[in-house]
Write a structure and sequence with these properties.
- With 265 residues, this protein is an alpha/beta fold.
- The protein has one domain: TIM Barrel (Alpha-Beta Barrel), CATH 3.20.20.
- The protein is built from ten helices and eight strands.
- Helix 1 (22-34) packs across helix 2, helix 3 packs parallel to helix 4 (113-126) and helix 9 (229-248) packs across helix 10 (253-261).
- The radius of gyration is 17 Å and the shape is globular.
Length: 265
C-alpha cells in the first residue's frame, strides 16, 4: 500500500517580543513526530504566515529541520504577490531544509484563470524546489478543476493541497490526474473528509487536527490501511464536534486555543 502522509500546519509560536519561540516549536514538532505524524505544512494559513517576516518564515523551516532532521517531510508555504518573490523565498527555504513549497494564487487581488496559469507556470519554471498547488478559495482566487488539471502536467508541480471543501471536485481531480501522473500527490486540507479522502485514493491530508489529536488522526489512517472502515469512521465521527468547536472562533484562534490546551503555547 502506498505511503500516506499526514502533514500538520502548525500554529505560529512567538515570544512576547515577536520573535520565534524555537524551543517551544521544536518540542511541539517532536511531539507530533513521536505520535506518527510524518510531515509539516509550514507557513500556511494556520501558521499565520501573514504575521511573519520572510526571515522568520525561513527560520521556521530551519527550526523544524534542526529538530526533526529527516523524520518529517517539510512543505513550506510561499504565498507572495509575484513569481519573483515566491522564487526568492523558495531559495531561502531550500537552504533552510524544506523539501517543497506550496503556492496559491497571489493574495488580495482577484485573478482569472489565465492569470493564475501564468503565475503558477512562472513559479514552477523558476522555483529551485518542487511545487505543490495550494487551492484555498476562502482566502485567495479559486483555481478551477480545469486549471488544476492543466497545471498538474508541469514536471515541477508535484502535488496539490485541496482546501476547497468540495469533495465531488476532489474525487474528480484524483480520477483525472492520477491516470496520467500516478506519482502526483493529492492531499485533502479538510479534516472532516480525511477518511472519505483516503477511501477515494488521496495520498494523505494536511490538517491542523493532526497537531492537536495526532493519535486519533493516525489511528484513522492505520485502521483504514487494515480495512477496518467502521472503526475508522467512529473515530472520524468523534472528532467532528471538536473540529466544529475549533472553527467556531475566528480562524485560527480556535486551533491555537486547542494547541495551548495541549501545553504547547
Amino acid at each position: 500500500m502506498k505511503e500516506i502522509r499526514i502533514l500538520v500546519p502548525p500554529v505560529a509560536m512567538l515570544t512576547a517580543d515577536g520573535s520565534l519561540d524555537a524551543p517551544k516549536m521544536q518540542r511541539y514538532f517532536l511531539w507530533m513526530a513521536d505520535h506518527g505524524v510524518n510531515g509539516l505544512f509550514l507557513n500556511g494559513s494556520t501558521g499565520q504566515f501573514n504575521i511573519l517576516t520572510s526571515a522568520q518564515k525561513a527560520e521556521t523551516v530551519r527550526i523544524a529541520k534542526t529538530a526533526l532532521q529527516n523524520r518529517m517531510y517539510l512543505i513550506a508555504g510561499a504565498i507572495e504577490g509575484s513569481p519573483a518573490l515566491v522564487t526568492g523565498l523558495a531559495k531561502e527555504y531550500r537552504t533552510a531544509g524544506a523539501d517543497a513549497i506550496a503556492v496559491c494564487p497571489p493574495p488580495f487581488f482577484r485573478h482569472g484563470q489565465p492569470g493564475i496559469l501564468d503565475f503558477m507556470r512562472s513559479v514552477a519554471d523558476t522555483s529551485p524546489l518542487p511545487v505543490y498547488l495550494y487551492d484555498i478559495p476562502a482566502f485567495t482566487s479559486p483555481m478551477t478543476f480545469e486549471t488544476i488539471v492543466e497545471l498538474a502536467a508541469h514536471p515541477n508541480i508535484i502535488g496539490l493541497k485541496d482546501s476547497s471543501r468540495d469533495f465531488a471536485r476532489f474525487e474528480a481531480l484524483i480520477s483525472a490526474i492520477k491516470g496520467t501522473r500516478p506519482e502526483f500527490k493529492i492531499y485533502t486540507g479538510t479534516e472532516e473528509l480525511l477518511l472519505a479522502s483516503l477511501m477515494m485514493g488521496a495520498d494523505g491530508a494536511t490538517v491542523a487536527t493532526g497537531g492537536i489529536e495526532p493519535e486519533a488522526i493516525m489511528k484513522i489512517v492505520s485502521l483504514w490501511k487494515e480495512g477496518k472502515i467502521d472503526e475508522a469512521r467512529e473515530i472520524q465521527f468523534a472528532l467532528l464536534p471538536l473540529i466544529r468547536k475549533w472553527f467556531a472562533k475566528d480562524f485560527p484562534e480556535g486551533f491555537r486555543d486547542a494547541v495551548a490546551g495541549k501545553g504547547f503555547l
